[in-house]
Design goal:
DNA-binding, about 150 residues, homodimer, Arc Repressor Mutant, subunit A, two-stranded antiparallel ribbon, mainly alpha
Chain lengths: ~150, ~150
DNA sequence: GTGATTAGCACTATAGCAGTCCTAAATTAG
DNA sequence: CTAATTTAGGACTGCTATAGTGCTAATCAC
């Protein structure tokens, strides 16, 4: 169960793509510049996102990446899983739950994981898109946000 | 946001302690043997749990550890936090949310974290204790469980 | 005092994340 | 056709945290 910059960068990039007008391709460099991310690193993530079928790529000049389908049909869970943010507790060993304590803790981890997974899969990129738009609108008031 | 063996071992050890009859002390070695954990490593975790006020220790012969208070008043969240299972996403940087994408993702991580935290703090050691007892009962007492 | 046991520190090894760099392949612009 | 652009993919480095071991001191029961 973890959440690192991989997931953060990936979601930001996907959000960036959905905020682009229409569905024309955007280069890695452009995304990296807008989101202030290291371009070579971001590219790795985009490749993984492409392999997961979440984005499409076009090589060559004027090429780049674009969403493979509408933001409403892309969930956060899919994005995070695509870049290996397992969210899963204790990847390898988990079988032999021959002790009561083992069984209890494992079933607990599993329940928690399932809950979180469901939550992440129920949130679409479109939901975040609207959040972002409303935030941008609120910025018009020049309010200082301190989270 | 992570969940490693530290948390798993700690919960198992705490569960082991609550399954002990009465409130007499148990040595690290005994816990490690019952739960099949590396004793020196487990000791580190118990020291952290002691510093967090979740267990009490008694040095010297016949010494060991015992719960500092009743299992009903010890939550899973307290145990995990005591051993540094932050559960928190992206510990360090998070300020400058000057971009819509940053703000959206950060507020999302924060909401998820809060949810998970609440869930973990609402589960007491006593709840797991009952789960463990019922599992033992379901096993038909065939399994050897040191009481 | 002796043995048992916690307390605390130092140490190693391994793995994954974060990030850079270089080369190849594909495709468009001119 | 050629050159520029851009993705694809691998090799490589530095860092941090986990996981685990080992040793020494302090403490207490007998």
């Amino acid at each position: 169960m973890k959440l690192t910059t991989r997931g953060h960068y990936s979601v930001k990039a996907m959000l960036d793509l959905s905020l682009q007008p229409q569905r024309d391709t955007t280069s890695v460099k452009a995304i990296a510049h807008r989101q202030e991310l290291p371009a070579p690193y971001l590219e790795k993530l985009l490749i993984e996102l492409r392999r997961a079928g979440l984005v499409e790529s076009v090589r060559g000049a004027q090429g780049g990446y674009r969403l493979a389908r509408s933001p409403a049909h892309i969930s956060l869970g899919q994005i995070l899983e695509a870049v290996g943010e397992t969210i899963e507790p204790l990847p390898h060993h988990s079988p032999e739950a021959n002790q009561a304590e083992d069984w209890v803790t494992f079933s607990l981890w599993h329940r928690l994981h399932q809950k979180l997974k469901d939550a992440l899969h129920s949130i679409s990129l479109e939901d975040l898109y609207y959040d972002a738009r409303s935030w941008q609108a609120a910025q018009g008031e020049a309010t200082s946000f301190v989270v």
